[in-house]
Structure formats: C-alpha cells, structure tokens
Amino acid sequence: MKSPIKVALLVAVMLLSSTAPAALYQVQIDQSQWQLQASPFACRLTHQVPEFGSAVLERGAGESVRFWLEPLQPGLVSGDAKFYIAAPAWRANQASQTVESLKIDGVMRELRLSEPGSAKVLAALRSGLQPTLSASDLSGSDAKVSVSAANFGPAFLEYSECLSQLLPVNFNQIARTAILYPPAQWELSQASRARLDLVKTYVETDPQISKIYVDGHSDNQGRRLLNRDLSKRRAEEVTRYLVQLGISEDMLVTRYHGERYPVVPNDSADNRTRNRRVTVRLERTD
C-alpha cells in the first residue's frame, strides 16, 4: 500500500497538472517593447510575444483602430477562445473583463478582434492592463497569450503623432469618386470641390497613382447631342479644377459620353440624378 503522504502528493501533482496552463506566452516586463511603423497610409504598433509571435495594433487611413495576434505558425492556439482584459500581478484584486469570444481554426494566420473589441484593447493598454487570449495549444491543453502594457505609454505618444499625419481616406475610399449634378448644370458645388480636394491630397501622397480618368455623363432628358455637350462641360470643369489644385495634366485623361452609359435606368427622378455625373477614377501601378 502507498502511504497517505505519497497518495496526497500524487493527488496534488495531478491537480496542478490539470489546472496549470500547458503554455503561457508572455514577455518579461523589462523586455517589453512596442515598435512603431509610421506612414501617411497607416500607423502600426507591434509587440513581440516570445515563442508565440506578435500582437499588432493598427489604424489605417480612413479606418478605425484594429487589433490582432499573429502566431508564428497557424494552429499554435486554436478552438473556442476568449479574449479578455486582465490586471497585472500588482493589481490582482481587479476583476478581469471579457472582450469577445473567438473561434480559432488551425489555418488562421491572424487572430483578429472586431472594431469595438480592438478599441477596448487600446483603452486597456493605455490603462496599464493586459489584453489576454485564452485558448487551446497544439496538444489541446489550456494556453494563454498575454500582451504586456509595459512601455506602451511612450510608444503611444509616437503613435498619436503618426495619427495626426494620416491621410483622411485610403485608396479604396477614393479610387472611384462620383460627382453629381442638378439638371442642365455643370458647375461644381462646394461639396464636389471638397471631394476633389481629397482626391488631390491622396494623389500627391501616393506615388503609385499613375493616371486619373475623368468621365462625364448625363441622363437621357433632352436632345442627345446637347447631352453629349453637357457631359463634356462637366468633365472639363472637373479636370480644370484638378489642374488648379496642382495635379499634372499629364496624369489626367478626360472623356465624355453623354447618355450612353447610365449606371441605373433613367426611369425615375432619383435614378436620373445618379446618371448626371462625372466619375473620377484613380489608376495605380503595382
């Protein structure tokens, strides 16, 4: 027979092995760093988590902040996971707060939170708290990934400076712009000028923009030749304004089509409004 002491020790070991996480990924406080990558198109903070991968906090031009984890290999953690905010050891009496649940499969290379969840992570890091992922490791045992807030403050100041230099829009938001017109009009409204100002701001920042196509259109009300002339005036007015803003004429291709290419049928007043337009399309070289 085993002695009561040996039995008790065996039970204790079994309990510890069943409750302790098989993997705890975190960085030592004195080694915690946040690295900034800054450009007019995106501001990104990256935090390395030893043996796991990295945590990324990014805000792109014209977008909200996003947070995700990038494991070194897919499947490093998986299963039904929970992302929560934990207090550091010296604030252990503070209760944790759940951010959101995740379903992680074995092929995911980025473990992304929603926009609201990402905003909560940013707020937690600014407050000195630890965003933490609870999931399963390769063996199916519990695993945790802890993101350190140590040294986040100085990096956030640089990040905030980067945000002040971000473009107001990204390429997808500005690549195709429609300028709309009242019937028989071709002058630019204040709202249209403001939109074209955004086009100019983006184009002068992105060296990959090679061409700008300006296409004038009309609805089908009135004589066809007059509509063609009206679409020409609209397109030329947009081109003239872009040149005034400083865009090179060599980048601009101006065309006009009259009523030939409606985006919707000309069978209602609202649809005809959508067809009275100039489209400004940016072409990008890879």
Overview of the structural elements:
31% of the residues lie in helices and 30% in strands. Mean pLDDT is 91; it is low at 5-21. It is built from seven helices and 14 strands. It has helices at 4-19, 115-126, 152-163, 171-174, 190-205, 224-245, 269-275, and strands at residues 23-25, 35-38, 42-49, 53-60, 65-71, 78-86, 97-104, 111-112, 130-136, 142-146, 176-180, 209-216, 252-256, 277-284. α5 (190-205) crosses α6. The chain is elongated, with a radius of gyration of 28 Å. The chain folds into two domains: 21-163, Sandwich (Immunoglobulin-like); 171-284, OmpA-like domain (60s Ribosomal Protein L30, Chain: A, 2-Layer Sandwich), CATH 3.30.1330. The strands form three sheets. The chain has a five-stranded mixed β-sheet with strand order 1-10-9-6-7. The chain has a five-stranded antiparallel β-sheet with strand order 2-3-4-5-8. It is of the alpha+beta class and 286 residues long. β12 (209-216), α6 (224-245) and β13 form a beta-alpha-beta unit.
The level 1 CATH classification of the largest domain is Mainly Beta
Mean pLDDT: 91
Q: Gyration radius, to the nearest Å?
A: 28 Å
CATH architecture of the largest domain: Sandwich
Share of residues in strands: 25-35%
Beta strands, count: 14
- The tally of structural domains comes to 2
